[in-house]
């Protein structure tokens, strides 16, 4: 027993491992060019962050720790805009001669979205583990599609990654801009119509019944229009749950069918292309997207047949996607691209002729870029014109709906005043 105690006393205590806790710091400072910069970094202390910044050529003027609660609240989903900004940041860093791993470290640590920060630092860890940049991006397929990965892969293999990142950044910015324009064209009238129906429902459910009770004491026949509105009000009061069920079920069924059924999506895409004005916007945006994607892929040195795969998936419309896959198969047999475009019947003559000139002159990427610029400008102009056209039409619609309900309620009162 004594011997055991002696051994215990004589034994060395295991060294205590000190766990260094890292915190998130927001900082501001001046770079080598004297320009004000700011960002976000993770480290154990304020002094360590300042040391890291000075190593990067940044003179810190303000470093403050961010609360854990605030940092946790910043975690949100990654959007297409986040990826577009990431592309531009990486292009700028690489063009400035910053090594890839260091550029990912700077961009990742400085991102305000915690989800985006985790992803970028995960990509950095994969590269440090011996993977290529392209294969590291491919581990996040929801954020980086085949087109993005293929372009980065082409850049790494050709030794021109910074040039390809610049092209990717420009491509992402252009495509996101045109998507926003199309969404604006579709969302604005839809939102106003939804508000109009909600206001109408509120008036019919809460306001009209008050007038109906008042009219019961008149002891006279009501105008037909007033009876119709009161009948609608009574139906909504009695069957409001059925109306909500039908509307909710229809909306859910529509989005589920669109998500699950390719045939339904094909049908909807065909219908949308035939809708006046809106269909023209969608058509021209698809032409612009086709040419922008093809221009970017071809300029990166990706073979035409291989590039057509990415072009089809980036089309944004099943009608165009299926047509482009058919075009790819025909190009693989030796047909010219401009001939396959003509055979599809989807592309305007101007786009076909520009591609033909590009194929003959060996400047297909430049010609496609010019076509994309032209149709992107067309979409911009059409969206602005649509907004200007819709505003008076929507105001007239709201005036007719709300004014009609008010008129229906006051007609009996006007008749009563004339009788007196």
Tell me what you see in this structure.
The structure is a single chain. The chain is mainly alpha-helical. The protein is built from 17 helices and three strands. The chain has a three-stranded antiparallel beta sheet, covered by helices on one side. β1 and β2 form a beta hairpin. It is globular. 27% of the residues are buried.
Main sheet, how many strands, which sense, barrel? 3 strands, antiparallel
Helix content: over 70%
Q: How many H/I helical runs? A: 17
What is the CA–CA distance across the termini?
Answer: 118 Å
Beta fraction: 5-15%
Order of helices and strands: HEEHEHHHHHHHHHHHHHHH
Stretches where pLDDT is under 50 for at least 5 consecutive residues are 1-20, 68-73
Oligomer: single chain
Shape: globular
Structural class: mainly alpha
* Counted beta strands: 3
What's the pLDDT, averaged over the residues? 81
Rg over alpha carbons: 31 Å
What is the topology, as strand order, of the major beta sheet?
2-1-3
């Amino acid at each position: 027993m004594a011997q055991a105690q002696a051994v215990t006393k004589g034994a060395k205590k295991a060294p205590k491992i000190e766990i260094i806790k890292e915190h998130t710091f927001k900082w501001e400072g001046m770079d080598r060019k004297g320009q004000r910069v700011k960002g976000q970094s993770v480290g154990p202390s304020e002094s360590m962050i300042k040391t890291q910044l000075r190593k990067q050529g940044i003179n810190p003027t303000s470093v403050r720790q961010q609360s854990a609660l605030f940092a946790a609240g910043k975690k949100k989903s990654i959007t297409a805009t986040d990826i577009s900004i990431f592309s531009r940041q990486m292009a700028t860093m690489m063009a400035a001669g910053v090594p890839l791993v260091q550029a990912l470290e700077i961009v990742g640590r400085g991102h305000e979205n915690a989800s985006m920060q985790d992803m970028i630092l995960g990509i950095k860890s994969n590269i440090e583990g011996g993977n290529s940049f392209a294969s590291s991006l491919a581990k996040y397929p929801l954020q980086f599609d085949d087109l993005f990965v293929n372009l980065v892969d082409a850049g790494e293999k050709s030794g021109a990654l910074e040039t390809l990142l610049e092209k990717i950044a420009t491509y992402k910015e252009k495509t996101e801009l045109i998507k926003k324009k199309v969404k604006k064209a579709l969302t604005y009238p839809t939102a106003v119509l939804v508000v109009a129906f909600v206001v109408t429902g509120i008036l019919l459910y809460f306001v009209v019944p008050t007038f109906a009770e008042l009219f019961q004491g008149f002891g006279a026949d009501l105008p037909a229009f007033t009876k119709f509105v009161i009948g609608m009000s009574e139906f909504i009061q009695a069957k409001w749950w059925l109306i909500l069920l039908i509307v909710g079920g229809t909306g859910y069924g529509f989005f589920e069918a669109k998500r699950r059924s390719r045939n339904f999506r094909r049908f909807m895409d065909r219908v949308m292309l035939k809708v006046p004005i809106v269909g023209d916007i969608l058509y021209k945006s698809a032409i612009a997207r086709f040419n922008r994607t093809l221009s970017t892929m071809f300029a990166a040195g990706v073979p035409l047949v291989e590039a057509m795969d990415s072009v089809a998936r980036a089309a944004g419309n099943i009608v165009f996607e299926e047509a482009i896959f058919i075009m790819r198969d025909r190009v693989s047999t030796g047909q010219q691209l401009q001939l396959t475009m003509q055979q599809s019947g989807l592309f305007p003559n101007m786009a076909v002729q520009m591609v033909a000139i590009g194929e003959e002159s060996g400047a297909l990427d430049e010609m496609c870029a010019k076509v994309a610029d032209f149709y992107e400008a067309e979409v911009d102009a059409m969206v602005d014109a649509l907004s200007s056209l819709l505003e008076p039409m929507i105001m007239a619609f709201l005036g007719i709906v709300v004014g009609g309900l008010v008129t229906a309620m006051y007609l009996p009162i006007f008749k009563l005043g004339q009788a007196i």
